Amino acid sequence: DRRRFEDFSYEQRFAAAIIPAGSLQLITETDGAIHFLRRIRDHLLPEGRLIFDLDPIDAFLSPAGSSSVRSWTTPDGSLLTLQEMQEEVDYVQQTTTSHLRYDLWVNGRLQESEHQLFRLRWWGVTEMKFVLKEAGFTDIAVCGNYTYGRTPQQRDHVITFEALRSG
Whose CA, among 9, 11, 18, 111, lies 20 to 30 Å from 72? Predict the structure, then answer.
């Protein structure tokens, strides 16, 4: 069952919703983000909290054609590699499109590969505050590098938002 962010529904309400690792950036359209955040709000109890992280803009601004490789060793000694090649940076739409290649290596031999086109949107702090207000959230707090109460700064690696469902 594949669901989109914008389509989820639950019978129950929650005291908090946490969206980890910049996942909100997968929603690339402003209207889609507002719709999704309204659905989250509707699934929160009164005074419920939404908490999520965004990557700062400099995490997105590698030039088209640039690439990076990361790797991890699994507990059984296999090697996982992730190669990311930036295909497009759209400064007007505030999106990046990358080609991702995941490889599984066992005993130095390639066992499996997966490919994915990966699109993300970067959001400015002020812009996201407006989106949250439009979605019906209040008491919006923003902090940098997981230091509650500290205003985000230029070199922060993560920006965290916390917003309240009033009433």
Answer: 18
Render pLDDT for 74-113 as a digit per residue (tens, 0 to 9).
999 999 999 999 999 999 999 999 999 999 999 999 999 9
> For the chain, which residues score pLDDT lower than 70?
1-6
Which strand (E) or helix (H) includes residue 33? helix 30-42
Residue 101: C-alpha distances to residues 82, 104, 116, 118, 149 (Å): 6, 10, 7, 10, 38
- Cα–Cα distance, 8 to 28 (Å, whole number): 17
The first and second tokens of residue 67, run together, are: 């690439």
Question: How far apart, in whole angstroms, are the C-alpha atoms of residue 48 and residue 90?
Answer: 35
